[in-house]
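User: quick one, fold this
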Amino acid sequence: MIGIIGGGIIGVATAYELAKLGEDVVVFEKKYLGSGSTFRCASGIRAQFTDEANIKLMKYSIERWKELSDELEHNVMFQQTGYLFLATSEKEVETFKNNIKLQNKFGVPTKLITPEEAKEIVPPLNTDAFLAGAWNPEDGKASPFHTLYAYKKAGERLGVKFYEYTKVISIEEGWKIKTTRGEFKVDIIVNATNAWAREINAMIGEDVVPIKPFKHQLVKTEPIERGQIEPLVCPPAWNDSYVIQDGEDGGVICGTALEYESSPDDVSPTYEFAKEVLRWAVKIVPPLRHVHIVRQWAGHYARTPDNNPAIGELVENFYVAIGFSGHGFMMAPAVAQALAEKIVKGRTKVPLDWEWFDPWRFERGELRSSAFQIG
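Assistant:
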C-alpha cells in the first residue's frame, strides 16, 4: 500500500495515477481536500517559463490538461485562452525575445506581438505604457475545484481511499503512519503537503528541503462580459501584477507580488494587499475601476530557494513532491504521472528532469536558475 500525505492537487492526482497503475493508495488530509494552496490559486496554466526543465515539463503538462476532462469523466474547464506578458522597456523587450527563442526551441509557440495586437486579444487593455507582448495562445486556465473533484472521483472509482480531517501525528519505523484516525502500515510514502512539508520530512529526520511559506492574496470582481480579459495578462515590471477572467463565471481575478512570510495556517486577507493589487489592476485594464470587488482571499506559495519544486525520492520508499512555489496546479498532471510511473516502474515517459528537481540539491548547495514565478 502507498500512503500519500496531503490532499491538494498534487496528492490527489498522484493517488489517481498510482491507482491507474494498479496500486492500493490511501490519502491523508488534515483538513478538507484542496484546503491548502489548490483552492486558493489563480487557475493559470502556462509553458512560458525561462529554463529548459520547466518549459519541457509544462509543455507536456498542457498536453495532459487537454485530455483530462475526457479521461476523468468530468469537465475540469480547461481553456487555452493564452498568457500575455507585457514589456514596458526596450531592455524587457530583449529579455522577452530571448525567452521566446528558448520556448520556441522546445516547441512552445510563443511570439512577440505589438501593443495593437495585444489590444485585439484583450479589448480593454491600456496599451499606452507597453512596447510589446509575449503571447502564447496555448497557455490557459482551468477550475481548481472541478479538477480536484475530477481526480478524486476518478481515484475513488479505482479504489483510492481518502481520509479528510485526518492529521498525521508521526511516522514510525517500518512506515507506520500514526494519525488522528489511527495507525496505518504502508510500504511507500509520498509527502505532498507543500507548505507543511518540512513538518512531515522532519518526522523521518530528513528536513533537507528548505521551504518557506509566503502568503499571497487575490481579489476577484463581479462578472464582466466574457471575452474581455480571457488570458492572464501581466506586465512583470509592474510588481508582477496580473489580471485574468475566471473561466467559470467571468469575474476578474487580480494578483500582485506583495507577499508576507507567515505560517501556512494564516489565511487572513489584508487591506494593504487590496489597495496594492487594485492600484496595478486599473493601470493594466482601466475600466476595472468601475467594477465591484466581491471577494478577497489568501493562500501560500511554498517557496524553495530557487523557486523550483523538490520532486523525487528523499530516502528509500519515501518520496516528495513539494515546494511548488506557486506552480503546483499547472504542473500537477505531468508531475503526478511522472511520480507514479517512477514509483511503480522505475522510469517515466514524462519529460521531468529528476536531477533538476532533486530534493537533495539544497544540501549540496546546487541551486537552479530561479523559476519564473507569476500566475
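User: anything notable?
Assistant: The helical segments are 9-20, 52-72, 90-105, 115-121, 144-157, 197-202, 271-284, 328-345.
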